[in-house]
Amino acid sequence: MNESGNDTAISQTDASVVLSVNHVGKYFKLPTEQATGLKQLVINWAKGIKGYKEQHVLRDINFEVHQGDFFGIVGRNGSGKSTLLKLISGIYVPDSGSIQVNGKLVPFIELGVGFNPELTGRENVYLNGALLGFTREEIDAMYDDIVEFAELEEFMDQKLKNYSSGMQVRLAFSVAIQAKGDILVLDEVLAVGDEAFQRKCDNFFAKIKKDSSKTVILVTHDMGAVKKYCNKAVLIKEGEVLINGNKDDVANRYTLENMRADKRDTDNDKADEYPTGLNARVPLLRVNPLGPQILDCDGVFQFEVEYQYEESNPYYLAIAMHDIKRGGVTYDTGSNTIQLNRHGHCKVRFEVPLQLFNNGEFKLVVSLRTQNPDNPKITDMVAFTNDDNCCIFAVRDDRNREYALLNDRALHITMLDE
Predict the structure, then answer these.
(1) Where is the ABC transporter domain (predicted)?
(2) Which of 153, 311, 386, 389 could pair with 277 as two cysteines, CB 3.0-4.6 Å apart?
(3) How far apart are CA 253 and CA 250, in angstroms?
(4) What is the CA radius of gyration of the chain?
(5) Phi and psi at residue 21, in whole multiples of 5°?
(6) What is the pLDDT along the chain (418 residues), one digit of tens a residue?
(7) Percent helix, strand and coil across the chain, each rounded to 5?
(8) Exposure letters 274-307 (e unless 16+ CB within 10 A, then b)
(9) 34-63 b/e with 16+ CB inside 10 Å = b?
C-alpha cells in the first residue's frame, strides 16, 4: 500500500509528467582577482589565473512532477532551491542536464515583482499579467476573480504606493493563484495577509489539491505546509538531492537538518551514512506489526517499536497515526510523549483499539526525542521512522462506510427537533 496525499481519482503512475528535471547542474563565476588593466589581464592569462572561481550551486538534480501533484521543494538557505526554481521558470539556463516542461507554467518567484507603485491596482494587474505572458483578453477574464479574492474592490483605481503592505501582498498573491496556468510555481507565499486572508488561501489550496488538472510546485520552509498540502516533495542540501519522494520523510529530515545546524552536533554530521531518519545516535528505529495487519472494528492492532539508543539522558517516543486514504493525522501523542528509561537495543509493545474507525488504511510513524535544554515544555527530534520502517495496517468491517474517518457507531448526530 502506497501513501497518496492527492485526493483525486487519478493515480500517480497514470498521470502524465509535466516537469522533468534530468541531471541538472548550475554554477556561477565568482571574481577572485580583479585585473586593473590590459597588462595585468595578460599577466594573469600567462600565469593561468582565471580571475574567478566556479561556485557549483546545483549538482546532478533529478526528479519528476506529475500532473495533479502538489510538489514541495525544501532546503535550508543556501541549498540551491531558489536557483532550481529559477531554472524551472526559465529565468536561468542549466549548465548541464535538461529541464522539460509540458504545459503552461506560471512562476511567482517573489510576490509583487513587476508591480509599479505609480500605477493603480487595476493597471498593475494588467501589467503583471502581461509580464506573465497573458493576453489582455485573458487578463479581462481573470480580473474580477483576482479583485474579489484580494478583497480590494474599492481600491483598484488608487495608486499602489497608497496601499498598505498587506494590501499589496494580497493583490500580488491573488494574481498568482488566479492565473490560469497548468503549473503554478510558488516561492514562500503561504504566510501572506492577515488571519482571515490566510484562511481563504488555505481553502484555495485545499480546492486546487483536489483538481487533477492543476499542478503546484511549492518552495517553502514551513514543514506544516508540506505535510498538509504536498503529496510528494524533494529535499535539497548543498546543491544535491538528499531525499526525493515521501513528503513526511522530507519534512522530518528537514527538521533534523535544521536542528543539527543550530546545535552544531558533530555526532549527527554522519547522518547521510544511515537510512533516512536515522543517524549515529539512533542507528535503529522501526515499527513492527505483532499480529494481523487487516482487522475489523472489534480487533486491536498490536505493534512494537524497536530501536537502539545508548545515551544515558532521558528520552521519549512520539507516535502519530496517519490516515493514508483520507489524508491527515488521525492521532498524535503530541506533548504526551512516552518517556522511556531503558538503553541499548530495546523493544516496546503498544496496541491501538479500532472500534471508532471506518474502513481505511493507516500508517504509524514514530520519532525518538530528547528534552530541549532551553525549554522544558518541548522535546527535540533525534530520529524518525521513514516510509520503509514505519508500519501500515487496515480496517475492514462490513458494518462500516468508506468516506468519513469515524464510523456511525462511534459518532451519531441526533436531530432534536424539526
Answers:
(1) 38-263
(2) 386
(3) 5
(4) 25
(5) -110, 115
(6) 333 334 433 344 456 999 999 999 998 877 666 656 666 666 666 666 666 667 888 999 999 999 999 999 998 888 888 889 889 988 889 999 999 999 888 777 666 666 888 999 999 999 888 877 788 998 899 899 999 988 899 999 999 999 987 788 888 888 877 776 788 888 766 656 667 777 787 788 888 888 888 899 988 888 878 888 899 999 999 899 988 988 888 888 887 777 655 544 444 445 557 888 999 999 999 999 999 998 999 999 999 999 999 998 889 999 999 998 888 889 998 767 899 989 999 999 999 999 999 999 899 999 999 988 888 888 899 999 988 899 999 999 989 988 899 999 999 888 898 7
(7) 25, 35, 40
(8) bbbbbbbbbbebbbeeeeeeebebebebbbbbbb
(9) eeeeeeeeeeeeeeeeeeeeeeebbbebeb
Range(s) for CATH 3.40.50.300 in the chain?
17-245
The sign one gets for the Cα dihedral 364, 370, 372, 378 is positive
Across 213-239, b (16+ Cβ under 10 Å) vs e yields: ebbbbbbbbbbebbbbbbbbbbbbbeb
- CATH (one of 2.70.50.60, 3.60.15.10, 3.40.50.620, 1.10.10.10) for 282-395: 2.70.50.60
Which DSSP category does 82 fall into?
Answer: H
> Of how many residues is the chain composed?
418
Task: Give CATH superfamily name and number for 17-245.
Answer: P-loop containing nucleotide triphosphate hydrolases (3.40.50.300)
Residue 351 φ then ψ, to 5°: -145, 150
What the block records as the C-alpha cell of 104 is 503552461
